[in-house]
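Fill in residues.
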């Protein structure tokens, strides 16, 4: 099992999307849990390439190729998830999207995939999404949580607009707003009165579980999950 997971990680890091998909199918046929493939295989590959990028050993085009390979693997994992099982164990509905002005979607896609395999019904509106679009979709599907993230400092104001728009449309006591992504600090999240903030995609799942399980929207205390503190 370790060998195939390492192979998937290496292929994602190298941006070999077709081979990564083939290896993923092989791992699924071996009966490996899609969550394990995502976390210990594909995500580990993204970590490798991100580190190489940070060290100046890899460049943007390589990172983009790795992101494409990651997205292709996520798609196969989604196809192979047991929809009925997921629906039966549904713990909440989430509408999510990357903030207005931002087209970075790799981290968001990882969050979406992890949330789906953890029992959330996920409506992903993609990138460059307006607060209005998020709220309208949330009203339509009766969502518990709106998640909005960004990697761009210039898109931070739009995150604050999401919470404001939720309040303005009278949804403040019904819908949680969770935020995250590189430049989104816990302080920023608190100031914009977000209901939750988290660091990584795994933290994002924990944050969403806490929100629907233990909290009420607009509570004074923001849910904060950062595995890097541990
Ligand atoms: C790949 C990349 C791109 C690709 C994006 C491809 C794609 N499909 O996503 C391309 C080439 C398109 C791109 C474009 C640009 N980019 Co760029 N990009 C990156 C890069 C190198 C990696 C991001 C990534 O995918 N990481 C891998 C994923 C898995 O990690 P992650 O995104 O951090 O996500 C994790 C967490 O943040 C969290 N998370 C993510 N989203 C969310 C959401 C929620 C709700 C939660 C709770 C958690 C969460 O969970 C994830 C998994 O653990 C970063 C640098 C870096 N090292 O981060 C710059 C970076 C983000 N880019 C940057 C910039 C400036 C740009 C451009 C403006 C460049 C330009 N001059 O044109 C454009 C902007 C385009 C736009 N309008 O959005 C800056 C942003 C600086 C800032 N703070 O504002 C960075 C930080 C580079 C830098 N050091 O300057 N970029």
């Amino acid at each position: 099992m370790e060998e195939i997971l390492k192979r998937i990680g290496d292929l994602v890091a190298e941006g070999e999307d077709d081979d990564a998909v083939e290896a993923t199918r092989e791992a699924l046929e071996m009966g490996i849990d899609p969550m394990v493939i995502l976390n210990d295989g594909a995500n580990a590959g993204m970590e490798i390439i991100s580190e190489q990028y940070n060290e100046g050993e890899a460049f943007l085009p390589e990172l983009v190729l790795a992101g494409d390979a990651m997205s292709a693997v996520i798609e196969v994992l989604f196809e192979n998830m047991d929809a009925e099982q997921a629906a039966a164990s549904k713990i909440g509905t989430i509408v999510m999207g990357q903030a207005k002005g931002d087209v970075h979607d790799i981290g968001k896609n990882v969050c979406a995939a992890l949330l789906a395999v953890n029992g959330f019904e996920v409506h992903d509106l993609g990138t460059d999404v307006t607060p209005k679009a998020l709220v309208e979709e949330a009203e339509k599907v009766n969502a518990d949580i709106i998640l909005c993230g960004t990697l761009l400092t210039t898109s931070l104001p739009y995150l604050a607009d999401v919470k404001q728009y939720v309040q303005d449309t009278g949804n403040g006591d019904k819908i949680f707003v969770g935020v995250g992504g590189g430049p989104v600090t816990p302080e920023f999240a608190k100031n914009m009165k977000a209901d939750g903030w988290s660091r990584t995609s795994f933290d994002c799942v924990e944050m969403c579980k806490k929100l629907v399980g233990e909290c009420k929207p607009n509570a004074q205390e923001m849910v904060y999950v950062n595995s890097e503190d541990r």
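The chain has ten helices and six strands.
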